[in-house]
Design a protein that fits this description.
With 174 residues, this protein is α+β, with helices and mostly antiparallel strands. Helices cover 18% and strands 37% of the residues. The longest helix has 13 residues. It starts with a helix and ends with a helix.
């Protein structure tokens, strides 16, 4: 995000860069991210096919075997989890734990998976008017359109989850 903000036309871009740099350098507010596993969304399934964009509902399916399950899962299909995405004027993303929601998705859920250990984010590719290419995470298209020069091209690259497994790593090392 900081490299993109260096090209921003916003008056407060330097303040944002300073704030983000401080957060990244803080031992309290940031981590080394060595305990995060990045998981790309495998697929999505439209649950309701309404023409009304603000009534959309989708299943976002992620394949992921938590390190605590290594060699211990005997269920059919792949280990993973599903986020229920809905947009009814406000975006909602919810980790689904009910087994019936997983039918016919190819994945099954284990209760070791916890939403409190996750951060959902988007990856984007930006091309500035001068041809500079930037890969960014976070933010929305309208956000980049506001912060960056007019003519910046925006391409959605994917939806990801950063999953923090540090609790498992600490427990394992004891």
């Amino acid at each position: 995000m900081i490299p993109a903000l260096k090209h921003s036309t916003e008056d407060n871009a330097e303040n944002l860069i300073s704030l983000l740099t401080s957060i990244r350098e803080s031992k309290v507010l940031s981590s080394s991210h060595r305990e995060n596993i990045v998981i790309e969304r495998y697929t999505k399934i439209k649950v309701n096919c309404s023409d009304d964009l603000y009534r959309a509902e989708e299943k976002w399916i992620y394949r992921f075997k938590h390190p605590a399950l290594t060699g211990r899962c005997t269920q059919p299909g792949e280990c993973g989890f599903i986020f229920k995405y809905s947009d009814d004027n406000y975006i909602h993303v919810e980790l689904v734990t009910e087994s019936q929601y997983y039918i016919d998705t190819g994945v099954h859920y284990h209760d070791v998976i916890s939403a409190r250990d996750m951060c959902v984010y988007n990856a984007n590719a930006l091309t500035l008017p001068d041809g500079t290419k930037l890969d960014t995470v976070g933010g929305w298209k309208w956000w980049w359109e506001r912060l960056l020069p007019a003519g910046t091209k925006h391409m959605f690259k994917g939806n990801y989850v950063a999953y923090n497994v540090s609790d498992f790593m600490v427990a394992k090392s004891k």
